[in-house]
Amino acid sequence: METNRLTKDEIFKWCSIPKEELLNQEGRKVKLEVRENREKLMVDLGNLMAEEVIEHNKRGMLTKWVLPAGPTDEYDTFTRRVNEERISLKNLWIFHMDEFLDWEGRPYPVEDSYESLEGTMNACFYGRIDDELNVPKEQRIWPRINDMDYADELCEKMGGIDTVWAGIGAAGLVAFNEAPHSYCRHISVEEYAQSKTRIVDLNEDTIVALAHRSFGACTDRVPPKSITIGFKLMLNAKRFIYMVATGAWKQTICRILMFSEPTVDYPVTIIPRYVADVTLYSTEETLDHPLSHETKGW
Predict the structure, then answer these.
(1) Strand arrangement, sheet containing 198-201
(2) Of 210, 182, 195, 115, nearest in space to 152 by CA
(3) Which of 281, 217, 203, 293 has its CA nearest to residue 38?
(4) CA gap 65, 141 in Å, rounded
(5) Mean pLDDT throughout 163-178?
(6) Is pLDDT above 50 for 1?
(7) What is the pLDDT of residue 185?
(8) Which UniProt keywords apply (predicted)?
(9) CA distance 11 to 292
(10) Is there a contact between 16 and 294 (Cβ–Cβ < 8 Å)?
């Protein structure tokens, strides 16, 4: 069983690389696209999304995506172009990453609230697209507690995903696929890569991060569980696009993603082993690690 564990010296070494040297740095596992700020980054990503749909429509192809309910800035540009340019989304299939659950493992009401990611997407994505252009409701695939195999089986039947558009967490989560924290159970990289849709408890570091971001560090305000698609579905993708513009929160995980071998301690590192086309889109601030400015020894 593969048990790759990173050392602090490895992490310090990657974090000490000046951002100006990242584009030409040997050993980088993913492609890198850098923009000066979040606004510019998200506009470019929204345009990239629109261009993929336009190209597939011209060729009479389906477009199959995995989408997150955050970040959502890129949807501003995408939905505007869809409406202005009359881009049909009738051949777009969307596999949504995850949904919050309460402490008893039940979903919250679907509404425009923090607890409902489906409600968030209805408000910031589907609800902003003209009806005659919009994604048919049956092509909006959410992980459901009453049929956890549906998304995985449908994805396999459809021949996989074209693009996964993903944010990542500070500890390397993708969707709510987090590092497994257990003294009693050890999961290998290969096992993790085969993970399917499942109900998970949110790791405490994720709850703290979400609470700090939105609720003044009131951890009880963050839902404790979620249902998430697994890596098996996402690793069927032709390409991964990471969208990371959160500044200091993500400076270290971006370095780990770029240079680490696969490890379940940071699940995001597993993806480049299985998907050939992986690109990190990020900002100058997010890639400018403070350890790269240190003059004293570690």
Answers:
(1) 98-101, 225-228, 198-201
(2) 195
(3) 281
(4) 10
(5) 97
(6) no
(7) 86
(8) Isomerase
(9) 12
(10) yes
Pairing outcome for strands 198-201 and 225-228? antiparallel
CA 209 to chain CA mean position, Å? 16
- Look at residue 3 and tell me whether its pLDDT is greater than 60: no
Residue type, 165: W
Q: Pick from 148, 98, 103: which is nearest to 120 by CA?
A: 98
Q: What share of the chain is helix, strand, coil (3-state, %, to 5)?
A: 40, 15, 40
How many residues does this entry show for the chain? Answer: 298
Residue 263 amino acid letter:
T
Cβ(274)–Cβ(230) below 8 Å: no
Please state whether the predicted TM-score (pTM) of the whole model is above 0.70. Answer: yes
Assigned token pair, 120: 């968030």
Tell me what the mean pLDDT of segment 16-41 comes to: 97
Q: What is the tens place of the pLDDT at every residue in 96-113?
A: 999 999 999 999 999 999
Contact 39, 71 (CB under 8 A): no
Going from the N-terminus, what domains does the chain have, and what CATH number goes with each?
Answer: 32-289 (3.40.50.1360)
Tokens at residue 140, please? 């909006």
